[in-house]
């Protein structure tokens, strides 16, 4: 789905995890974008992610993970409301796309 002249809320989610000692693999990861104006939505699959350590968090998504879906889905005059992820914070203020 392509969003234009809209307000989009975006976030990532994961739906499975496997633990092997200190290594955790987070599977079923996806990036979700939803329109606040027309209630349309888009889901893009992300690669599994491996982390190490005691904490259960899946780790923050990276700019390289979220950028492809944003480039395909967002057109000019679209406002993006994102969570506190560093990937979205660093990407959106300086991202310029010509359409």
Distance between the termini: 15 Å
Estimate the helix proportion, in percent: 10-25%
Largest sheet report: 4 strands, mixed
Order of helices and strands: EEEEEEHEH
The low-confidence runs, each spanning 5 or more residues with pLDDT under 50, are: none
Mean pLDDT: 79
Structural class: alpha+beta
Radius of gyration: 15 Å
Report on this model:
- By secondary structure, the chain is α+β, with helices and mostly antiparallel strands.
- The protein is built from 2 helices and 7 strands, in the order E-E-E-E-E-E-H-E-H.
- The protein has helices at residues 63-73, 86-91; strands at residues 7-13, 16-20, 23-27, 30-35, 41-45, 49-52, 79-82.
- The strands form 2 sheets. The protein has a 4-stranded mixed sheet, covered by helices on one side. Strands 2-3-6 form a 3-stranded antiparallel sheet, with no helix packed on it.
- A hairpin with a 2-residue loop joins strand 2 (16-20) and strand 3.
- The mean pLDDT is 79.
